[in-house]
Amino acid sequence: MFITYHLTSAQGVSTDILNAIKAAFESKPITIIVEKGKSDFELTTDIKTVLEERLQEDENTYLTAEESLRQLKKKYDL
Q: Quick check: 75 and 69 in contact, CB under 8 A?
């Protein structure tokens, strides 16, 4: 059995959570793993390359974000 708690901040860890864990697992052995959330987005080298290429394109050929999404949805049946 496992339980996952997703907290928006480490400040959300309270005695209530610890008491809930104790109640759920009683005297059974447990492992607690703390992992930093994946809210930080990092651009890969490939994505940076594509973005740099886009910056060099002629502004007259730009598509709006809405048009880009419309074309992607149509092409990939999203």
A: no
Residue that has been written with the tokens 């109640």 in this structure: 23
Domain range summary for the chain, segments of one domain joined by +: 45-76
Note the pTM of the prediction, 2 decimals.
0.42
* Rounded (5°) CA angle 41-6-17: 150
Residues 3-50: pLDDT tens digits?
888 888 889 889 999 999 999 999 999 999 888 877 667 888 999 999
- What distance in Å separates the CA atoms of residue 40 and residue 42, rounded to the nearest whole number? 6
Is residue 23 within 8 A of residue 1, CB to CB? The reply is no
**H or E stretch including 24?**
helix 15-25
CA atoms within a 13 Å half-sphere pointing along the CA-CB vector of 20: 9
